[in-house]
Amino acid sequence: MRDRINIRAFTMVEMLTVIAIIAVLAAIIFPVAATVREQARRTTTMSNLHQIQVALKMYKQDNRVYPEALLGYVELINNSQVTPADRIRGGFLYQAYIRDINIFRSPNNPVNDKTSWKAVEVLLPDPNNPSQRVNEINGALVTRPYYLLDSMDIGPTCPGSGVYEQHYSLYRPYLPTNNTAGPLDDMCQLQYNLPPENTIVTWVSDHRSCDSSGQPAPGSKDIVLLLSGTAKPVDSRIIKQKMTGNDPNFSNAGQNRFWCLD
């Protein structure tokens, strides 16, 4: 008589225990993996911003002024077809100083189409009072056409919102102070010959997270580039508040350095 072979299967309790262990491990590992991936993307953005700053300094040395834009504006072929971003001829830093179009795109930017673009509101000096800034001239809103893959000149107010704002600019909003000498324009602007090294050049908001009301969420970070070449994460709410003239961390009102990073 053949010996019986006993085959023991897993019990229901054992299977549920294994599934529970796997679920716990997944709950621990997935957030950590997501954090690691986001940190790697931030590092890439900071590296790109550093290359932007090096090119920006070279442009200033060659032209004695900073450029109007970092990448450049949208160009058309025969006044109708959009020129792909990597083929424009009138770029500022691209292509004379930076050859790789991907340097201008954050890894968190979902737009990879080189022909997608949007007219974005910009600030210019007031023709009647050059010390102040306006977004309208003769009743017409002032805009410039930017490529949407360009994370350095423009960025979304919230990722996925479809609402874009200008980030790199020679001109920042005019913010008067109670200085006894009278209101002075902000020193931290690239329009001037020698802006402070902690002047904000631009920031990348593709890494930003927002709450249900469309405002930067607590803990959200933008990647900010300073004129010194430093690129670092900064609380998104501070940048948002600077844009609206209500930065609680601003402590240099008497010196008008609002657009410097304290």
The portion of residues forming beta strands comes to: 15-25%
What is the number of beta strands? 13
Which structural class should the secondary elements be placed in? alpha+beta
Radius of gyration based on Cα positions? 25 Å
How far apart lie the N and C ends? 89 Å
Mean pLDDT reading: 87
Question: Could you say which overall geometry the principal axes of the C-alpha atoms support?
Answer: elongated
Spatial order of strands in the largest sheet: 11-12-13
Q: Tell me the number of helical segments per DSSP (H or I, 4 or more residues long).
A: 2
Order of helices and strands: HEEEEEEEEEEEEEH
The total number of structural domains is 1
Structural write-up:
The protein has 262 residues and is an alpha+beta fold. The chain has one domain. The strands form 6 sheets. The chain has a 3-stranded antiparallel beta sheet. A two-stranded antiparallel sheet has the order 1-2. Strands 3-8 form a two-stranded antiparallel sheet. Strand 12 and strand 13 form a beta hairpin. The radius of gyration is 25 Å and the shape is elongated. About 2% of the residues have low confidence.
